[in-house]
Amino acid sequence: MEIMRVKDELVCTRRVPGLGSEDLRILESQSGALSVAVDPVGAPAGSWVFTTSGSAARYALKNPETLTDLTICGIIDQWEVTAAEG
Amino acid sequence: MEIMRVKDELVCTRRVPGLGSEDLRILESQSGALSVAVDPVGAPAGSWVFTTSGSAARYALKNPETLTDLTICGIIDQWEVTAAEG
Amino acid sequence: MEIMRVKDELVCTRRVPGLGSEDLRILESQSGALSVAVDPVGAPAGSWVFTTSGSAARYALKNPETLTDLTICGIIDQWEVTAAEG
Amino acid sequence: MEIMRVKDELVCTRRVPGLGSEDLRILESQSGALSVAVDPVGAPAGSWVFTTSGSAARYALKNPETLTDLTICGIIDQWEVTAAEG
Amino acid sequence: MEIMRVKDELVCTRRVPGLGSEDLRILESQSGALSVAVDPVGAPAGSWVFTTSGSAARYALKNPETLTDLTICGIIDQWEVTAAEG
What we know:
5 copies of one chain form a homopentamer. Chain A has one domain (2-85): CATH 2.40.50.220. The first copy, chain A, is 12% helix and 37% strand. Chain A has 2 helices and 6 strands. Chain A has helices spanning 55-59, 81-85, and strands spanning 2-9, 14-15, 24-28, 34-38, 48-53, 70-75. The first copy, chain A, has a 5-stranded antiparallel β-sheet with strand order 4-3-1-5-6. In chain A, a hairpin with a 5-residue loop joins strand 3 (24-28) and strand 4. Chain A is globular and about 40 Å long. The relative contact order of chain A is 0.27. The interface between C and E is medium-sized, with 26 and 26 residues. Strand 6 (70-75) of chain A pairs antiparallel with strand 2 (14-15) of chain D, so a sheet runs across the interface. Chains A, B, C, D, E: This is Carboxysome peptide B. Chains A, B, C, D, E: Its main location: other. Chains A, B, C, D, E: Keywords: Bacterial microcompartment.
């Protein structure tokens, strides 16, 4: 699982039906790359989370047919940026 | 899911049968790399989209046996390049 | 799907049974990295192709139990290197 | 499978139900990137391990429905950092 | 499939049961990164091989429940380092 930071919500009205109405978040990786994840835990902007990818990303949701390849798994209780840089 | 920009259509007459007649798009990633995706939402060139990969890319299509590993999931309503660079 | 160029054939007599006698090609990515793909479309050296990876790579073949993770999906009709560099 | 070093435990009280109460570890790759893995073998901090990813990461656990995409497979008996750098 | 060179065996007595007693090899990628693969073909150190990843890595073995995500598929008959560098 990857460690990422929630940057923002993603507003996207025109989407494939298979994504349902899941909340989407823009995440920033440790190297600064941005990606989009489904958020089943309600992670606020700025929090550090870890994500699961691939087929596990679908099983992490109530509806396992949701067409995601990246899902937030949990909010990290405490994360020091210095740890990521060390 | 990755955030990418639609660059062009891809014309490809000689393809494996499993791709059917799906529309193909050339996408550009945030780092400038090019890849090819199936487009079920009709994204025009220049628009910002997000894509799903792996097995989810197949399930995003009406025919889940289409042999894609990258499918456009939705068009982002608003995307500022500065956000991607910030 | 990734855009790659066919560089050469790959001669490999000692292989796992699950690969059958599929034609193997050495492909070069846009960044110059080399990889090996199964070629069901008969792409000549020098041509630009796009490839599918992961489980879709297996389904692209007549025998979906072939043990590939990269399969050529089609030959691109026209590809300008400048487009890849632009 | 990737070769990584155990850096620390990950404390995360708010997580998706599918992760159960599995032990989570922060791992550091050879290039210094951090990620999170489920640890079924009890690897102490500082030890070198190798990990499996993708769907195999789930099957490596007693409960194959655990929503991980990275699982520690084993502890390497002896690993010289110089080998990784050579 | 990726092209890699066999560097060494991997000794690992403490491993998850799902790996069985498969032979493990340390492989070096073209860019010098090290990873671990299951070796069903008996590739000697120094030889160039190509590997399959993801779910195909499991199907390449006699026991498809082996928990690998990287398996050696075959030994390349002839590989010139200059080809990899060209």
